[in-house]
Every structure is written in structure tokens, then in C-alpha cells.
Amino acid sequence: MCAICGIQSKRLESSIEKAAGFCRGMMAAMRHRGPDDEGMHIDGRHGTVLGHCRLSILDLSPAGRQPLFNEDRSLATVVNGEIYNYRELREALLNQGHRFASQSDSEVIVHVIEEHGKAAWSKLRGMYAAAVYDEKSGSLELARDPLGIKPLYVYEDEDWFAFASEIGAFDVFSVKRAFDEEGVADFLLLGSVPPGRTHRNNVKALRPGEVLERRDGLKHSKWDSIISQFSREAAHASPANPEEMACLLRDSVSKHLASDVPIGIFLSGGIDSGTLAGLASEVSPDRIHTVSVGLPGHSLDESALALQTAELYRTAHTEIKLDRAEFERDLDVFFQHLDLPSIDGFNTFMVSKAARRAGLTVALSGVGGDELFAGYSTFERAPKIATLMRMASMGGSVSRAAAAALIEVRGANASRSRVAEIFRSSPADLRSGYLACRGLFVGKWLESLFLPDARVHARRAQERFFDETAWVTTEKLPDSVGVGGLEFTRYMGSQLLRDTDVMSMAHSLEVRTPLVDIEVARFAFRFLANPVPGDGYPKWVLRHALKRPLPQDVVRRPKQGFVFPWEEWLRGSVCEDFNRRLAQGGVWTRFLDRRKIESWKSDYESGRAHWSYYWALYVLMRFLE
Fold first, then answer.
1. Cys-Cys link to 139, which of 183, 215, 264, 416 (CB 3.0-4.6 A)?
2. What is the pLDDT of residue 598?
3. Are residues 204 and 62 both part of a single domain?
4. What value does the mean pLDDT take over residues 437-446?
5. Count of the separate structural domains present in the chain
6. Is 412's pLDDT higher than 80?
7. Looking at 201, 224, 247, which one is the last position of a domain?
8. One of 2, 23, 53, 437 is an active-site residue; which one?
9. Which among 159, 116, 151 has a CA at the least distance from the CA of 130?
């Protein structure tokens, strides 16, 4: 896990020294991601510079320093991430005559590219954002792993083309930041910015699995969503075998434990992280280290359940206690590292801090368990809402309007009103059911947050959501597969994975996600299409992989995400800061309606609106400043 960056001049007369200076500035801005070592490669002939900040995980020797090269140094690469099948790839490449200069997993990339060309990326199993530079032609190829675990951003102006692991690295170019108001609308719709877009007009994000090549001054992009592919395959596949899934899970956990530095597991009181702890204790010869966050005195505190799991699997367990005072102390640092707006992330920020404090450099996370094994209530609620919308639509727009009014009459709160707004304004299909569950500011709510001249951005954000998720309905997928695809590509892909990367790296910690593995994901979608009955409790297929079952208190407890007591914590200094920023105004007043923000603030304070609306508006105000 590291930071990568690079720059190419679009004008041959530009100074290579200037390009190198920009690259050094990008590296300095991301040094928290890789504090152990750094390296650069400069090619004056083609005006190209590559940079790398290293967090040493595998091959701690200087031989693992990046950029890494092939035998004749015609290809160079910088990589952020881990290649989990590198040993198999390395052995095959050695048999084909390739020679390696290190034991690093990243070095296999240049040799796989050399051997297989464009087909190379499909042979990698891992999480990565990588750049491969061809010294002979001056072409630059950027690639992001197909599940979107590691981020990669590109910046472009009249003089320069650049890439980096974090958006803040591009501040070295000292250009006026032009905010993308449509990116802001995207955030307000779902609480995060979807793949491909950012909040800045001159910065774009590579989508999961996208390969972008810059050759002879022209860009060529290749992209296809592997999750839509898995969904289509699952819809027509035969039922899957739980024993085969158990083997895949054990294999994935085993590969994700490869490390030359201390490694552990984020352990909550839930099934996903508990299963990881159990599997890791089975496949590892070493005692597993687990870390949890306790919330003393709160009903959300999972520390007792986490301890049960830790004791069952005999892990070396560390618990870090967290209260509102620490939340408020760390909030400024959190925002310094938040390079895309998100309503999530702070929980990962704090547990990563705890893991680093416990002496870990690498941690495994249970992200992906709910998306792949139907752990969220959206798997039930979204299809039900979609069905009700279809039934209401049979009577035309008047019938839908009446149904929306009835929903609001049954209970006046933001959650019901959001569903009612979806009934009024959205297509009667699964995507709308999902938006009713996961959406934040939807329909007229979103439009009303913007000033009249800017409301087109709100309309476009909703249109884009339905356009970009059209595959869910056109492929006629089973509801469970469609919801799984939406959760994987939207909530997890745009929010959980991205926040996990940036917030763990804020503490120089590598977080790995064994459940978000390409082989596990492909097989898990078959279970979404053809569920097995199990024992009547959640995620039986996942738990079935364990030889020693999880504690029954963990298995049978009601679903609870890893969340903090936001309802209480946001009423302290955050409330005071919110009021101050609202009174002072800022860049956001150019396109957002201050009165509407005040109205949502009042709804939160009176208990009519969930804390997430209030937090989203606070995040946006702070972020845009």
C-alpha cells in the first residue's frame, strides 16, 4: 500500500525539471500513505516523471523500492496495492525466462505486461491502482482493479497530464479550483460521489476496472463493469456449492495474510469480521491480532461481542475506547484527509488509528460481507417498494400521487417522506426501490437545496443515477442480484471502499478486504441468484466456511452496522460550528439555498430528520471551504 503519482508534459518545450518539481510536490502531499521510502523515475525525452511513496509490506529491502522495471528497463511501473496471486504469476514468468530483481508482488506487473500485453490486467488477483510507462514509445497506461478497491485520479490542463492516488496531490498545480456542481449534486443524492466523477472539473476518477492509455498525446479508455457481468452470469447459472465457497474464502483469507510486517483484523461484534477472525485463525500458523473500538455506556457498543469472538479464536485482542471528546479532537484531521465528500469514513478513520496504535501496519476488514451475502435490509425493502410502485402505477400518476400521500400520512418523518418523494418522481422499478432505501436528498428535496439557476444539476444527478444503473432492469435480473449489484457498485464502491482507502492511509495503515475478492465475488453472486436456506440466521453461506462456529450471541443478534452515536455526538461542538459556518456563508452559497439548509438543520434538531441529512450538509460546507 502506497501512493503513486506521475506527470507528462503536453508541451515538449516544458522543463523536465519543472515536471519533476511537480511530482515531488505530489509525493510530499501523500507521504502519509507511504512514509517508509520513496522513488522517482525521470524521462526527459518524453517529458515524463513517475513518483512513489512506499509503505513497506512485502520485501522490505531496498530492492522493493519503486518504480520497478523489467529486465531491459524499457518498462517501468508504480503500484498502489497488493497482488495476491503474485507467487503463481512469478513462478510462471520465471519458467518463461523472465528475471526478477526483488521479491515484491508489484514487480510481476511489468513482466506480465511484457508477456501478455493488453490481456495482462485480467490475470491479476488483487487490489491495485497502477501505472506502466513504456520508455521507448513514451506511452503511459493507468489501470484500476476491477472491484474498485484502490482509487486513481487524473488531472489535466493545457500543459500537463497527471495522475495520483489522492485528489489533494493536484493542488501543486496552483490552479483555481473549479467545483463541479454536478459532483456536489451526486454527493447530496447518495452521500458519496460515484466512480468516474469528483467534485472538481479538472479531476476525474478512473472507474473500477478501467484502463486508460495516453499515447502520442491522445487518451484511449477501456472499461466494462465486472459486477454487471457477474450479475448476468449469476442470473443464468446453476445453484452454487457452499463447500466450494468455503474453499474460496479460506484461500482468499490466506492470500490476504501475506505480509512481512505486523498484521491484524478489524473486529466488531458482527458476522463478517468475526468470520474473518475465525478463518484467519484456521489458516495462519501465527496467533491473529484483532482490534476493536468500544463505546462505553452506549447501546451501540459491540466490544463485549467482539471479545467473545476474540476469546473463541484465541486472538491477541486490543480494544480502544472512544468517546465524544476524542471524536471532536480528531474531526479537523479527518477533514484534512477527506479528499472527496462522504457521509461515511470517520468510523474507519478511528479504527485505523486504533490499529496503528496497537502496532499494526496491515489490517483485514469485513467490508463486502453485507453486499455479497445479503446482509442489508435493502435486499428485502427495495424489491417491496418497487413492487408497491408498480401496483400504484397501474392507476396512473393520480394513483401514484395518492399512494405517496398515504405513505406520508402514516408517519411524518424524513424516511417516509423520502419514500413518498420517490413514488412521485421516479420509475417504478428496483432502482427506485434502492434509491428509496439508500438515497439521501431525492427528487424535489434535492432540487430545492439548489438555487433556481443551479437546479439543473440536481435533475441531472438523478437522471445519471438511473442511466448508469439501467443494466439492473434491462438485464431482467433477480431482485436479490440487482440489489447486490447496486450495493456493490454504489454504496460499497463509491463510499465504503473509497473511504476505507483514504482514511486508513491517513494513519499509514494498509487495509485489505478478503471478501472483496474477484473469485469470492463471482461465486457469491450465484448465491444471491439461488439462495440456500441455511439455518435461518443471516449469512449462513459465509458462516458455513468456519470449522468452529461463531458465538451464538453474534449470529442471532439484530443487524447493526459499525456506527457511532452520531445523534448525540453531533449536538456538541459540531452544532456550534455548523451554525457559525451557516451564518458566515462560503463558496457553497453560490449554488446552494441557505434557507433550505437552515430548514434541514431545524428538522434534525427537532427529531424530524435523521442525523445523516444534517451530517451530509455539514460535511459539504466544510469540504467546499
1. 215
2. 95
3. yes
4. 92
5. 3
6. no
7. 224
8. 2
9. 151
